[in-house]
């Protein structure tokens, strides 16, 4: 009996697994709830230069038309090149202009020396407005978003520590730091602190989310992994909608973040109490006593009284053959020098392509609605339909085939977008939704395949490596798109990456549908259900048969003569 058979003996979908499923769902909600908070905290409202105290008092008393005339007198006009609309400048004002200055007198302009005036409704504040991240400091907004992406990149690299310290310890530490980080963002006293806390929060958020997926892969039966993974992915879209609801009712950005932190803490409390250690990890680390105790606990919760403690104890000793030194460096060496390195490289390329395309489509596609809150809800809901479709495809067609055709859909959508006219809003929106939905499905495929093809002691390491490569793609996307946002080349680059990634995934990734996740490298090697390998063997056999037929014909001809 191995750990898979032991888990089968204590029950694969009893009370304990159902409770664990609920805990995993709750612990994944905070990720989407807080991952896009900067869409609201970084909101840059309409603004202008703050004028003298007397002028501001007059503006407060004047009618709308009179106030507009006064503003045009003190603030120069500027024309938006994109829309060709003329309005008052948001970042400049006339130098030393007073009511006595003749209107036709040409004055030089200067930046806003007295500060900024923001057009915000009462009790509505944003970090961008409070820290004046506008005009010559608008780069701070981009820096805070970049800090979030870099934090995800560094956090991805830290995910491999779960292979060394365990799933539960890694989850507890990362979740605690993640919730604390969200609260600390609300305490930021200047832009530097705001950027640093955004980085730290993202650093631990990805580790917490990854551990939930790893545990779902290792503790659930093969027939349930796809359904449970689908549920966890759906929660991400739902939590994005919840984030918009929080932002709509709580307009003050500091209290908005504190409410997200409090809600995340409430959702994570069941995880702090009930998030277990992985039986597979305990077995592979040689902690047989702890594994047996956990299996007895699962057996009791599921109503099974006949768990054989003695046989499990002796067999787990035989199962724990691998070295307990599961550091990240050893994990990388094991993955790339043991015959499965090509799978890891192709999978990392799929992560890179998916992340780059998803970020590019999300940032530069057409908005669904002008209202930022409605738009955020629609963004979250747009990801929901693709996930059940992906679940059905994974269940029927398998992992590599599903990855391939979703990649092809995303690639074709990106390739067609540049050919559409700017006024063809409906077609561009439909293609953007198709591309974004396909990339959401591809992301789910990347997650589930990553956790299914790696052995237990290197599962977190492979996720660390692939997710890190994916974050590089997310960071690269703005540079590719901003280089020529209105041209076709960026979209063709995305299309080429998506199509090649889909084909490579089909040819080199193994089929893991309906089989137990591997515990050792040997079990990984045994899974040779790879379409590329099968095609190669078929081609070699056909070539060998053709080579034998002429020799056989020649032999028969000689016998006849």
Write out key terms for the chains shown.
3 domains; 561 residues; Growth Hormone, Chain: A; 3% strand
* Helix vs. strand class: mainly alpha
Oligomer: single chain
The count of strands amounts to 6
Query: Any idea what the CATH superfamily of the largest domain is called?
Result: MFS general substrate transporter like domains
Which percent band covers the strand fraction?
under 5%
> How is the CATH topology of the largest domain named?
Growth Hormone, Chain: A
- What's the total helix number? 25
CATH class of the largest domain: Mainly Alpha
Average pLDDT, to the nearest integer? Answer: 79
Largest sheet: 2 strands, antiparallel
Uncertain runs: 314-323
| Cross-sheet strand order for the largest sheet | 1-6
Global shape: globular
User: What value does the Rg take, in angstroms?
Assistant: 29 Å
Our count of domains comes out at 3
Architecture of the largest domain, according to CATH?
Up-down Bundle
What percent of residues adopt helix (DSSP H or I)?
over 70%
N- and C-termini, Cα separation? 64 Å
Structure write-up:
The structure is a single chain. The protein is mainly alpha-helical and 561 residues long. The protein folds into 3 domains: 1-44 and 122-320, Growth Hormone, Chain: A; 47-119, no CATH class; 323-529, MFS general substrate transporter like domains (Growth Hormone, Chain: A, Up-down Bundle), CATH 1.20.1250. The protein contains 25 helices and 6 strands. Strands 1-6 form a two-stranded antiparallel sheet. A two-stranded antiparallel sheet has the order 2-3. Strands 4-5 form a two-stranded antiparallel ribbon. Strand 2 (77-79) and strand 3 (86-88) form a beta hairpin. Helix 11 runs antiparallel to helix 19 (386-396). The longest helix has 30 residues, at 531-560. The N and C termini lie far apart (64 Å). The model is unreliable at 314-323 (pLDDT under 50).
């Amino acid at each position: 009996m191995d750990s898979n058979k032991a888990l089968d003996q204590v029950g694969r979908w009893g009370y304990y697994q159902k409770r664990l499923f609920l805990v995993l769902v709750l612990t994944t909600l905070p990720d989407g709830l807080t991952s896009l908070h900067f869409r609201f905290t970084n909101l840059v409202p309409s603004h202008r230069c703050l004028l003298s105290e007397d002028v501001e008092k007059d503006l407060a008393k004047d009618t709308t038309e009179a106030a507009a005339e006064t503003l045009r007198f003190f603030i120069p006009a500027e024309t938006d090149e994109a829309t060709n609309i003329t309005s008052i400048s948001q970042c400049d004002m006339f130098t030393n202009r007073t009511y006595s200055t003749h209107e036709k007198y040409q004055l030089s302009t200067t930046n806003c020396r007295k500060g900024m005036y923001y057009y915000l409704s009462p009790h509505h504040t944003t970090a961008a407005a409070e820290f004046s991240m506008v005009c010559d400091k608008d780069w701070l907004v981009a820096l805070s978003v970049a800090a979030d992406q870099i934090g995800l990149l560094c956090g991805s690299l830290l995910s491999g520590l779960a292979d060394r310290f365990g799933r539960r310890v890694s989850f507890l530490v990362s979740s605690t730091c993640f919730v604390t980080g969200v609260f600390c963002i609300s305490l930021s006293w200047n832009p530097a602190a705001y950027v640093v806390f955004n980085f730290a929060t993202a650093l631990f958020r990805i580790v917490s989310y990854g551990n939930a997926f790893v545990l779902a892969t290792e503790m659930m039966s093969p027939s349930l992994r796809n359904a449970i993974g689908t549920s966890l992915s759906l929660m991400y879209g739902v939590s994005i909608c919840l984030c918009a609801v929080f932002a709509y009712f709580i307009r003050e950005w500091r209290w908005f973040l504190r409410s997200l932190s409090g809600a995340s803490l409430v959702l994570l409390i069941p995880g702090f109490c009930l998030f277990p250690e992985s039986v597979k990890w305990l077995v592979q680390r040689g902690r047989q006593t702890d594994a047996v105790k956990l299996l007895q606990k699962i057996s009791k919760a599921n109503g099974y009284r006949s768990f054989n403690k003695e046989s499990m104890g002796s067999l787990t000793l035989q199962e724990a053959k691998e070295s307990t030194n599961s550091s990240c460096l050893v994990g990388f060496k094991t993955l790339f020098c043991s015959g499965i390195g090509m799978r890891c490289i192709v999978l990392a390329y799929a992560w890179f392509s998916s992340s780059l395309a998803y970020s590019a489509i999300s940032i530069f596609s057409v908005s669904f609605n002008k209202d930022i809150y409605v738009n955020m809800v629609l963004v979250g809901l747009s990801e929901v339909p693709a996930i059940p479709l992906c679940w059905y495809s994974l269940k029927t067609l398998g992992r590599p085939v599903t990855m391939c055709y979703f990649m092809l859909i995303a690639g074709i959508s990106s390739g067609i977008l540049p050919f559409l006219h700017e006024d063809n809003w409906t077609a561009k929106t439909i293609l953007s939704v198709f591309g974004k939905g396909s990339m959401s499905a591809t992301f789910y495929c990347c997650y589930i395949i990553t956790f299914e093809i790696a052995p237990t002691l290197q599962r977190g390491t492979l996720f660390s490596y692939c997710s890190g490569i994916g974050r590089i793609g997310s960071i690269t996307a703005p540079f590719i798109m901003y280089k020529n946002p209105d041209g076709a080349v960026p979209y063709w680059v995305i299309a080429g990456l998506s199509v090649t990634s889909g084909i490579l995934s089909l040819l080199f990734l193994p089929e893991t549908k309906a089989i137990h996740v591997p515990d050792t490298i040997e079990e990984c090697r045994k899974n040779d259900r790879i379409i590329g390998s099968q095609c190669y063997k078929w081609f070699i056999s056909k070539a060998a048969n053709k080579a034998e037929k002429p020799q056989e014909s020649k032999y028969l001809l000689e016998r006849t003569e």
